[in-house]
Amino acid sequence: MSSRLFLKIGIRALAFIIIFFISSNIFSQTCEGPGNYSVPPTPYQNGYLIFDGRGDFLRTNDLDAVEFDSLTTGSFSIESRFKITRSFTPQYIFGKLLNKGWLFGYHTDQSGYVSISFSNGWRNVYYLGSDTNWHEYEIKYVKQSRLLSTYVDGNLTYSYQNFTYGNISNGGAFSVGNAGFLPEYGNQTVNMYSMWFKGAIDWLKITVNSENALSYDFNDCAGQVARDSASYYITDRVYPGVSSCGASHFMLGYMPSKDTCDPAWGSEEANPYATRFSPMGSGMQNWHSGEDGNYFTDHFSLCMTVWNGYLINGGLFNIAGGTGVRNIAKWDGSVWSNLGSGLSNEPKGLAAYQNELYATGFFDSAGGSEVNFIAKWNGQSWNPLGEGLNNAGNVLAVYNGELITGGWFTSAGGIYSPGIARWNGSEWKGLGAGILGSVNSLCVYNGELYAGGSFEYAGTLSCNGIAKWDGSAWHSVGSGIAGGDFMVSALTVYNGELYAGGSFVNMNGISCNNIARYDGTAWNSLGSGAGGILCAYSGGYITDLKVCNNELYAAGLFTNINGIQANKLAKYNRINWCGVEYGTDLRPESMEVYEGDLIINGDFFSASGTGYDNIVKYTPPLNITGNNNNHNNIPNEYKLYQNYPNPFNPETNIDFLIAETGPVKISIYDALGKTAAILVDEEMKPGVYSIKFGGANFPTGIYFCRMEAGNFKDTKKMLLVK
Q1: For residue 67, which phi and psi values (nearest 5 degrees)?
Q2: Residues 422-456 pLDDT 10s
Q3: CA–CA gap between residue 292 and residue 326 (Å, rounded)
Q4: All structural domains of the chain
Q5: Nearest to 95 by CA among 197, 246, 248, 223
Q6: pTM of the full structure
């Protein structure tokens, strides 16, 4: 080992020791925001659900307790707080309606009345007229006296004597925002879409025979939109082809609604939570216009990459920031725009290769031209890659100067190449005997290509969900995964180790719950892993992993990670996990770093209490490791380390030491001496620091990193290679 390499390792080791000894002070600073994650912010706390009248609804399967069987039901009460925002229009607010069910709504015959209907007709509760204010409603029925009483804001409004009803047990679903959905799906379940509720509901409670049958309070986060006495499941709407769980409980905007946009959260709080999340225009939507009306339909984002200084986002949508697009769009830092006429269906993988943008997924045309599940964009037009694939691709990566794609296919360019193939710019080739199963993630680690997914074999080699390619042959990486949904969906490199996320219980025989790390020799768990999803065997699902600002971010379906409360989004600083504020309401799908910010996309409508449509920007704190509380471990010198990796594309890490409190400036210059970026320009305290420089928007070439702190000045040469 050379003395130079030994010195470099020694310096790194010393820096790590310093960080380790002061970690109790350092790393607590990375968990910004309040520590009590069980009480979420606006719009959840003291919040309510907003229905837009275009298909938003919540539903359960059949609930016997709210059928009011005339033979078994004695007395009952129904209580709710809601407001109407569309006056004089018939609409169903909640209830059951199939054949002879019941419902609570804005009267279909008597304009302006809020009423309740059982098997023998409507009964008025209150005349709202054009009143759009909040009101508390209560319906009481005493079977012994056959008295039905209605109250609004605590005041008696109507009293019905000798009220009776027949057996209304019907097997239908209970719905909020409409009524009458069956547990099964079919055309007959969408024939009342004109009756969608437009307004907001705060809470809903039903008591039958003096027992609580249902109590829903819409203040919860983590996708937990309601709870009752029988069950408490997290249920999230997911993209087609992926099953949801908790079928006996509430579904958010679930099929067969024409408009599967979920109800949004609103809040009565005057001071919303300060957040590092910010919008990217108005996000992504999918607008339908046809004979059956105009409405927003199911929409989501699935994949991202950075290409030619643009952030590229792909998914199922036709509007990006108000601009008409077709399942793919580019962001220049301020506005969204299209890429020609886009793709015929959603992409699942994106990558930059040889100065062109590549996309793979479920589409069979790009820019109006026929392609087979994969295409490339040169800035002006879409083009095929030979014969393409014979089935959908899931992921793209670059390895050894070639484009690698993984997915469900069995051939590429007409060549038998199951699960994975490579494109050199002109022709397709296989990687050995391929992978027998779905490949969902790819990553280069220690000069080898790692593939993760839902497969048992790479060629004839047993590998169970993860394998590596050394350029000529496949190798196993331990005994692989077991349990859960048997899926590795995310791979990334952080701090010199390979991290794998997905839905699994064990990795190489080690209990790890959906996330594990590999040091090149052995797999290790990260504490108790990611969990909290009660209806998932593995406790959850990691959809993506990404390094930003020298921390590892994890996104997916989970409410805690290593025992720390984290709502579907968490970050790791080599020692501790933290939740990222209050996370997202539904399902984050993928992440990308753009202009120093972490971009999260997926199938969600809010992050940390603020509304966004399927894509959001998170700006992390600049410093993650500086500290001046442990005086025994304060650096006694200023130091600027060589960036790593170097050469780099598109990001590199810059570590430095601060010995005394004072002004610090770190700048990046190009080869002509022109300032390219200023990374730090502020007063800093003594400590060990690490920042990132992103070169996505800069051309290939030589750059210089210069640090100035008091009398200390130093410059390091860096090489950006694209």
Answers
A1: -90, -15
A2: 999 999 999 999 999 999 999 999 999 999 999 99
A3: 22
A4: 55-258 (2.60.120.200), 628-720 (2.60.40.2550)
A5: 197
A6: 0.62
